[in-house]
Amino acid sequence: QVQVVESGGGLVQAGGSLRLSCAASGSILSLDVQGWYRQAPGKQRTLVASITSRGSTTIVDSVKGRFTISRDGTKNTVTLQMNSLRPEDTAIYYCYCNADRWGYWGQGTQVTVSS
């Protein structure tokens, strides 16, 4: 069993920064992809950024240049650094981990950006 636990999030004013962290633990042989998704009220959950075990990253256009994703392979952690936050970034952010070809989700963490 794999556990995915997020930390970070909260309330910030527009233009501010937040850092989200996610740790995967349990019986893991190979952690292939880690990433962050977000879901705003009334909308679908969508990808924000992801990173592979080789360090290849995908970042969606709406956050490119503002958000950075990184990982620590020795600790099975992934971090999303969010700068220049906008009200439209307000959502629940979910960590996703693909471990041993199975997908696991965290419980989600709220990010609220006030104007």
Architecture blueprint of SSEs:
Elements: E1 2-8, E2 10-13, E3 18-26, E4 31-39, E5 46-52, E6 57-59, E7 67-72, E8 77-82, E9 91-99, E10 102-105, E11 109-114
Parallel strand pairs: 2-11
Antiparallel strand pairs: 1-3, 3-8, 4-5, 4-9, 5-6, 7-8, 9-10, 9-11
Textual characterization of the structure:
With 115 residues, this protein is mostly beta strands. 0% of the residues lie in helices and 61% in strands. The protein has no helices and 11 strands. Strands 2, 4, 5, 6, 9, 10 and 11 form a 7-stranded mixed beta sheet that branches. A 4-stranded antiparallel beta sheet has the order 1-3-8-7, with no helix packed on it. A hairpin with a 4-residue loop joins strand 5 and strand 6.
